[in-house]
Write a structure and sequence with these properties.
The chain has helices at 40-47, 88-98, 104-113, 127-139, 157-170, 185-188, 209-216, 220-227, and strands at 2-11, 14-24, 29-33, 55-60, 63-64, 73-76, 145-149, 177-181, 194-199, 202-208. The chain is of the alpha/beta class. The protein has a single domain (2-227), classed as P-loop containing nucleotide triphosphate hydrolases (Rossmann fold). The protein has a 6-stranded mixed beta sheet with strand order 6-7-8-3-9-10, sandwiched between helices. A 4-stranded antiparallel beta sheet has the order 2-1-4-5, with helices on one face. A hairpin with a 2-residue loop joins β9 (194-199) and β10 (202-208).
Length: 234
């Protein structure tokens, strides 16, 4: 269980997160939606122990988040992660050396699924291939929590489709807690259980995806459009 307890993160006078309170339940898949600058990435970094709240607390299983406890989760970041001089195989070996929960067998399965060449250097990979490699490195870890920050950013529709299929195939549904920030709502909707709308550092709306579909006849995108403040997605 991940708990955000009145979390505020301030940079100078600007609040990236503003009194954020929410509990992510174990074994569910969450989509964090909202416009650019709403605080989605800051929230993910706070859960991952990469930034610390100005006020409030982030707890995992009741324990305050630190860099040590955050090693028990896997975080796909929009920046960093890959060393351009490394070959794909070297990136896999590096992650295996850093994380005790990294599964070489699962990495091999993902390598074939993602159609990546272990001999290629990261610098030679296309943006789509780099995105698939980052996802491989995260999904190969046997961890209870997966944080995926904009896994589709800058990728073409075919690559996004491959990534969604890999999530369906390699996430342990019902056991792993998965939090995904994304603008590509339609692609990711089939695997979402809960959706949250983040605006100006606050959760302004949330829903159970299946309930919204059955009771209101709305897709997540339609639900989002009815709840987001006017002009926020422009």
């Amino acid at each position: 269980m991940i708990t955000l307890d009145n979390v505020t993160k301030q940079y100078g006078r600007k609040k990236s997160l503003d009194g954020l309170t929410y509990t992510f339940e174990c074994g569910k898949v969450y989509g964090i939606l909202g416009p650019n600058g709403s605080g989605k990435s800051t929230m993910m970094k706070a859960i991952a122990g990469l930034v610390y709240p100005t006020e409030g607390k982030v707890l995992i299983e009741g324990k305050p988040v630190s860099r040590n406890i955050a090693r028990n989760l896997a975080f796909l970041s929009t920046e960093g992660m890959l060393y351009k001089s490394f070959r794909v195989e070297q990136m896999i070996q590096f992650f295996k050396s850093q994380y005790a929960d990294f599964s070489k067998d699962k990495a091999e399965e993902l390598l074939a699924f993602m159609e990546l060449d272990r001999r290629q250097r990261v610098s030679e990979l296309s943006k789509g291939q780099q995105g698939r490699l980052k996802l491989l490195l995260v999904l190969a870890r046997k961890t209870d929590i997966l944080l995926l920050d904009e896994p589709f950013v800058g990728l073409d529709p075919m690559v996004r489709d491959t990534i969604v299929k890999s999530l369906v195939s390699f996430i342990d549904f019902g056991k792993q807690t998965v939090i995904i920030t994304t603008h590509e709502i339609t692609e990711i909707e089939p695997i979402l259980e809960e959706a949250l709308l983040l605006e100006q550092g606050k959760i302004t709306a949330s829903c159970n995806v299946e309930q919204v579909r059955e009771e209101q006849g709305l897709s997540v995108l339609e639900w989002l459009k009815t709840n987001v403040h006017r002009g926020a997605l422009a």
